[in-house]
Amino acid sequence: MTDAIVVGSGAAGVNAAWPLVERGLSVTMLDYGNEDTVYAPLVPDRPWSELRRGDEGQARYFLGDRFEGVPFGEVRVGAQLTPPRMFITADTEELTPVASDTFGVSESLAKGGLASGWGAGVFPFDDDDLTGAPFSRGEIDPHYEAVAERIGVSGARDDLLPFLGDCEAMMPPLELDSAAEAVLERYGSRREQLNRAGFHLGRTRLAACSRAHRGRDAHPYLDMDFWSDAGRSVYRPRWTLDELREFDNFRYLDRRLVLTFREDGEGAEVACRLADGGERETHRARAVVLAAGTLGTARIVLRSLDRYDRPLPVLCNPYTYAPVVNLGMVGRKARDRRHSLAQLTAVYRPNPDEPAVVAQYYSYRSLLTYKLMKESPLGYKATLSIMRLLTPIFGVLGMHHQDVSSPAKTCTLRRGGDGPDKLAIEYRPSDGEERRHAAAETAVLACFRKLGCRALKRIRPGHGSSIHYAGTLPYRAEGGELTTDAASRLHGTRAVHVADGSVFSPLSAKGLTFTIMANADRVGALLADELG
Ligand SMILES: Cc1cc2nc3c(=O)[nH]c(=O)nc-3n(C[C@H](O)[C@H](O)[C@H](O)COP(=O)(O)OP(=O)(O)OC[C@H]3O[C@@H](n4cnc5c(N)ncnc54)[C@H](O)[C@@H]3O)c2cc1C
Q1: Distance 209 CA to ligand 1 centre (A)
Q2: Cα 413 to Cα 202: distance, rounded to the nearest angstrom
Q3: Count of the separate structural domains present in the chain
Q4: How far is the CA of 108 from the centre of ligand 1 (A)?
Q5: Across the chain, which distance is largest between two alpha carbons, in Å?
Q6: CATH number (domain holding residue 473)
Q7: pLDDT per residue over 16-49, tens digit each?
Q8: Is the pLDDT higher at 431 or at 391?
């Protein structure tokens, strides 16, 4: 019998599988595993500016063969999910439907999951951020280190060090672009005053290589990170999956939709449906690791335990973004050479009793002007001429808030009848939470104003838009149905472990994926000890 089945090939799945496979245990990974077979070969490894000026084939990948890259209407979530990234959310409306008037969902059935298009922002949690987790920063640190080495992390030891902590495996930071340099220069001359107000700014720590690492190239600065994976420099879980597939004791089975697990005397049986043909299939193992993404794992658990109509808590960082004019760029020429990921990160925490707000600064260019044009109150022609002049000085600030569970934030599996089961999500933050978020955003934008960045407006893309889902099966030392123990085992089971964001509650404002990966590595290592 196989030692362990891992469900899902995303950030959680591949990092949970790694320590099991490395220790010689037999692992089968079950995954739906959608891939992009259309666009990836079409995007040349050349700078964005050259492609825009001269590539005759650019319309295909920039706009999409069916113009699927043009967000008509009010679509504001996942602007980074360009046509070459749309495989990430493919088939989810049909196979993993959600019913909600209050919460927008982006789930993934892709090889590599959502992190096939993530922003690669790496934010190690401190002890405060780990409130509720069964480990401290000191205990998770070796797993942060192991994952940082595995995925390649670059960053600086700057003003964010007290908030992120050090990382031995960290490579030097990626180069800043001209706009971020202008912001950082102004910060240098106003640092003391801003630090006193609780505002600290530094370079964004990124899961991207600034030098060659594990067969991947140093970042090529083509400004094409939203469109392609040149040199495999930015981390995608597929790179770890490729490495896992080199091991004889690892088996990857895709085109399978996992439905349920069932424990028996020796371990567990996992039932899935084949994507091609629809037949059912079962697999047995001594242990199961669920890493189907927070919402995917909730579906599998609730269905397996027949807990339909039983609400689970759900969390997702509240998110607001603001287009900003960066006055430091007026009269300054922007270098063409740049990456497209977040350039700078700010942590705003004026008072240790209040949770931090985390803001990221992006220079706006390669996501194309038409997405900003939608937000203009002026007519099309006027907006186009203004945008052409202004784009070089535009930036985007994304602000994330902490989330805590409440009875008004739930997800509930409803029986599908003839079709697939539906996850019904209710998400209604209290007025107090909304007021606190708005006040903190005003303060963060005031700090950025001192750095020459003037916000044009605030856009709240709706609940769920940060795509940082968590908190459905939280850690609880005291036990309890639909919670997890310190080893991430689902209470009431012997052999079922949870390795994704489901276990984190409350949810820090820092992006959780690096911590998902480190925890998955911890869960895999603990299970490897247990299975011997
Ligand atoms: C545009 C974007 C930018 C982001 N930027 C950041 C960032 O900068 N920093 C950060 O911390 N986070 C970021 N995130 C969030 C991050 O991508 C997710 O937190 C992370 O990828 C979650 O990983 P996961 O493995 O838990 O789940 P997922 O990525 O959802 O992976 C789920 C896996 O399970 C498989 N699966 C699901 N259900 C089934 C089933 N029933 N049967 C078989 N297989 C199944 C899928 O095929 C997939 O392989 C971003 C997300 C997006 C979309």
Answers
A1: 21
A2: 42
A3: 1
A4: 6
A5: 72
A6: 3.50.50.60
A7: 999 999 999 999 999 999 999 999 999 999 999 9
A8: 431
Residues ≥6 apart with Cβ < 8 Å to 170: 148, 153, 154, 155, 205
Is the CB of 474 within 6 Å of ligand 1?
no
| Mutation choice for ligand 1 from 513, 517, 523, CB with most ligand atoms inside 8 A | 513
Residues 494, 280, 256: CA angle, nearest 5 degrees: 80
- CB-CB contact of 452 with 328 (8 Å): yes
CB of 347 within 6 A of ligand 1: the answer is no
What is the C-alpha separation between 237 and 35, in angstroms, rounded? 13
- pLDDT (average), residues 226-254: 98
Written as six digits, the tokens of 403 are 């989330």
Cα–ligand 1 centroid distance for 9 (angstroms) = 9
Residue range of the domain that includes 226: 2-531
Question: Residue 319: phi, psi to the nearest 5?
Answer: -135, 135
> Closest ligand 1 atom to the C-alpha of 516?
26
SS3 state at 271: strand
Q: At what angle do helices 513-531 and 11-22 cross, to 10 degrees?
A: 30
* pLDDT, tens digit, 9 for 90 and up, residues 331-352: 888 999 999 999 999 999 999 9
Q: Which atom number of ligand 1 is nearest to the Cα of residue 293? A: 27
Q: Please calculate the CA angle 36-205-355 and round it to the nearest 5 degrees.
A: 110
Which ligand 1 atom is the nearest neighbour of the CA of 80? Answer: 1
Q: What percent of the chain has pLDDT over 70?
A: 97
Dist. CA 292 → ligand 1 center (Å): 8
Q: How far is CA 153 from CA 16, 146, 213, 380, in A?
A: 18, 11, 10, 41
Q: Which residues pair with 172 in a beta bridge?
A: none
